[in-house]
């Protein structure tokens, strides 16, 4: 499932824009979803303990759809070739692969997803 968000709601002097992506309930625990935010595809993962992580949507190995991967406590397993990535750091399990790009994401008091993009 891909969810589109076209405009942010606030901008800081460093040109970081905050995007409110809607309820965390759009993402079942232990799964990921792709959001198109200002034309960029971002994968958002919700772990079973309700922690959110945001990364690039496609695997740096061969463009696998990371949001379709298996989500662990703080990891995602790419569905194409089973490379594992640490969602806290972006680090891959295979040294030949590059790390994921990460984006700051939180949940606000209304349980809405809040993403920051530069
Ligand atoms: S495309 Fe992700 S591990 Fe190969």
From TrEMBL:
The keyword Iron applies. This is tRNA-(Guanine-N1)-methyltransferase. Keywords: 2Fe-2S, Iron, Iron-sulfur, Metal-binding, Methyltransferase, Nitrate assimilation, Oxidoreductase, Transferase. Pfam families: Rieske_2. InterPro entries: Rieske-like_NirD, Rieske_2Fe-2S, Rieske_2Fe-2S_sf. GO terms for biological process: methylation; nitrate assimilation. It comes from Thermosporothrix sp. COM3. Residues 19-114 form the Rieske domain. One of its GO terms (molecular function) is monooxygenase activity.
